[in-house]
Amino acid sequence: MVRKHVHVTCAVIERDGLVLSARRSASMNLPLRWEFPGGKIEPGEGREECLKRELVEEMGVEVAVGRPLTPVTHSYPAFDVTLYPYICSIVSGEITLHEHSAMIWLPPARMLELDWADADLPIILEYQGLF
């Protein structure tokens, strides 16, 4: 049997020196873990295009997609995921959570205080290393 491998974009959204963290809802995979918002890349869709679409769908905001960080591949018990992170900023809209149960803006130095999805951890460490 071929193991499921999903390709996902995610946004490290910056505002006023803080970074957005989103908590998955209880009904999602990895329930109540924190993550960078984003979603699965659809067939024929570019990474940046996917990220913009997902943030409108999940949070009702339009973002400017900035520099990419290093992609991360992680194996969970049921599937593999490759995350394609980008540093982003909100250009329009107010955040409305359509899928997540909570969100918080944190300074980069405090991000690891949350219970993050494992695949997001290397992204946090790389991002913290930029300062």
What would your notes on this structure say?
- The chain has 131 residues and is an alpha+beta fold.
- It has a single domain, classed as Nucleoside Triphosphate Pyrophosphohydrolase.
- Helix content is 16%, strand content 39%.
- It is built from two helices and eight strands; from the N terminus they run ββββαββββα.
- Strands 1, 2, 3, 4, 5, 6, 7 and 8 form an eight-stranded mixed beta sheet that branches.
- A hairpin with a 2-residue loop joins strand 1 and strand 2.
- The longest helix is centred in the middle third of the chain and has 13 residues.
- The chain is globular.
- The model has no long low-confidence stretch (mean pLDDT 96).
- Keywords: DNA damage, DNA repair, DNA replication, Hydrolase, Magnesium, Metal-binding, Mutator protein.
- Its cofactor is Mg(2+).
- Its EC number is 3.6.1.55.
- One of its GO terms (biological process) is DNA replication.
- It comes from Geomonas terrae.
What's a concise summary of this model?
The chain is α+β, with helices and mostly antiparallel strands and 131 residues long. The protein has helices at 47-59, 121-128; strands at residues 5-15, 18-23, 34-35, 38-40, 62-68, 72-75, 80-92, 102-106.
Structural topology:
Elements: E1 5-15, E2 18-23, E3 34-35, E4 38-40, H1 47-59, E5 62-68, E6 72-75, E7 80-92, E8 102-106, H2 121-128
Parallel strand pairs: 1-7
Antiparallel strand pairs: 1-2, 1-4, 2-3, 2-8, 5-7, 6-7
